Every structure is written in structure tokens, then in C-alpha cells.
Amino acid sequence: MASSLPDEIVLLIFETLAKPQWDREGYSERQRTLSLLALVCRRFHRLAEPLLWRQLRFDKWQSSTLRKVQRLLPGSGQHVRAMKATTKYRPYNDEQISTQQVAEVVRMLPTLTEVRLDVGLNNDGLFKRLAKLTSLTSLALVNVGISETMCREATVVFPHLVDLRLRQWTFRYNVPLTEPPVPPVLRQVDFENVAFYAKALSNHTRLLLNPALVESSNSETGGDIIFVPTYATREWKSSLDEICDLLGDGQLPQVRSFFIPDQVRDILSASAPEYAAALDNFLRACATAGVEVRWLADEAEDELVCREFWAYSRELAARRSQEQQEAQVDTVA
Q1: I need a labelling partner for 65 at 20 to 30 A (CA). Which of 109, 168, 250, 333 fits?
Q2: Pfam families from the xrefs (predicted)?
Q3: Are residues 20 and 101 in the same domain?
């Protein structure tokens, strides 16, 4: 039956089975399914092999792994579109990759459109290396240290980038004394997800096209801020107390919404009385200040951007567009 179907129909079926999966189990199942299909016959092998190589996941980043993949890659890596690489990175250890290894990947996989790196990379020059991926549309960096110098020098333009995700891109003890300038690449993407302390972006949030997603609050914070607290219960309480004080003093006039995971509400409500009280005080302060609180359903650990955030980004973009149009009308009048 399958042999009577045209290649276009068979390929459509294969592509349905080969939807991108980044979690370990989903990725393994995807690769196993495509591998079995490739063994059925030569025709299936010809159709399934490009899909088999379209997505690569490295659970342990090593140069030897890259060399092995390079030997096996068909078509000089032209089929690969997405790659995720991880290491068991911890601060202060030596298990880091270099920008030279990133350059090696760029040379090996020139057609990448999606890159995810969780590799403990602290070297400058990363954006310049990745800029050679001219088709890059999605970039996710976790545990990647971006220095103030790199922010100043990151003038590289990713012409097709629409999805930028930065998590833990520097550590608390590395926060510079002066606020790092926002490089052009951060101003041109459709949204910005920065799991970072708000202080480092406090003077620049109004420059961003979309809201900054930060993991803590600061008295200098301005602009449209979405709040995602850190994972320690004590820090949750401290952050909520701080926000209550800032709202009460009128120091967050631009804040319109807070996005908070359901787990924060559940854990604080079930914790010590002072933690539950901190949550109640926060909700009352938001209601008084006219700030909306949206509760987020639990998401996968490596997927902080959820449907509610995208919806909010679209609402904000529409609101800003309307404000600009009204301002132009007033100017003409």
C-alpha cells in the first residue's frame, strides 16, 4: 500500500512522525521511529534519512562526539536544521566549551536554523561565531556568561532571528557595577526571555520591543516587567515583599502585569504563615496599584516561554502600535 503512494504523501507522513522533540524521551522515540522507517526499503531510507538528521541532540558535549557526527553526516550536514547541546555545568568547574568548538559546529552545520546551548560557556565572541549561521531563526542560551564587554561589542545582526531565549546568562556575583548596554540583537527580536536580575536591564527596558522576563525585582526597574521568581522559597518571599514596597511607593509605574507560576502560589500557601502572608500582601498591593497578576501553568523546565507570555507580548505590541498611531494623529492635528 505504501509503495503505491507518491513520495510527497509518504514524506508528509514521515514529517508528522518527525516533529521536533527536545526532551530526552521524546527525542529518542523520534529518532528510533525514523531509524526503523529507514530500514524498511531503499525508498523509505531515501525519504527518512534527511529527517533523521534534521534535529541533533548532544547530551554530553565533547569534541570527539562532534568528530564522530561529522563522519556520519550525509550531504555535508545540509539536512541538519536544529541542534541542542548540554553539559553538566556548575559554576567554577572546568567543564566548559570554547567559542572555537562553537565555530567548529558552525562550519559543520551551516544550515542550522535553531540552536540551543546549555554548556557553561563564558567566552566572548559567541554571537560573532553564531552570526555565520545566516539562516538562524531561534537561539536559546542557558548558563552562558555574556560579559559587559560582549554586550558592548555585540553588534552582529541576525537577519532572520525571531526567537531569542537567554537563561542564567550571567550569575549574581558577575553583575557589573554599571548597567550593560543592550546590544542591537536584543532589540530586534520578537521577544526577550532573560532569567536575570532586573537591575542589569533597569535603564533599558523601554528600549525593548517586548517585555523583559526577569527572575527578580529591583527598585530601579521600569518598563513592562514580567516577574518570574527564583526557585528558593525564601527568595520568593523576599522578592514579593520587595515588590509590595515598590508598588506602595509608586516606584513601578510602568509595570502592568506580573506572570507567576502556579507552583509559587501553591508552595507559599502551604508553607509557613509568614510566606502565605507575603503572597496575600502581594496580591492586595497589585490590586490596589491596578497591576494584573496572571498565574502560569507548570511548563517543562527548559521551556519558560509559555502561551500566556506570547499572548501578552502580542497584546503589548498591539497596544504600543495603537499608542504610536494616536501620537502621530495628535502631532498632525
Answers
A1: 168
A2: F-box-like
A3: no
Same domain, 9 and 62: no
Which domain covers residue 43, as residue numbers?
Answer: 1-52
Digit-coded pLDDT (tens) for 144-167: 665 555 555 554 566 677 666 665
**Residue 112 belongs to some domain of the structure:** yes
Starting at the edge strand found earlier in the chain, the sheet holding 163-167 runs 55-58, 82-86, 114-121, 138-144, 163-167, 192-195, 212-214, 225-227
Answer whether 263's CB lies under 8 Å from 300's CB.
Answer: no
233 inside domain: yes
Q: What is the pLDDT of residues 30-79, one digit of tens each?
A: 888 888 888 888 888 888 888 877 877 876 666 677 777 777 766 656 67
Name, in order, each residue with C-beta under 8 angstroms of 183's C-beta and a sequence gap of 6 or more: 127, 151, 152, 154, 155
Strand partners, 114: 82, 138
Q: List the one residue out of 77, 67, 122, 115 whose CA is nearest residue 99.
A: 122
pLDDT above 90 as % of the chain: 0
pLDDT value at residue 38:
84
Amino acid identity at 236: W
Reference 296, options 258, 255, 256, 259; nearest CA is 259
The per-residue pLDDT for range 158-213, each reduced to its tens digit, is 667 766 666 554 433 333 333 444 455 544 443 333 333 333 333 333 333 333 34
Looking at the structure, do residues 36 and 82 belong to the same domain, yes or no?
Answer: no
Domain count, the chain: 2
Q: Cα dihedral angle (23, 25, 30, 33), rounded to 10 degrees?
A: 180
Please list the helix, strand and coil fractions of the chain in percent, rounded to the nearest 5, in that order. Answer: 45, 15, 40
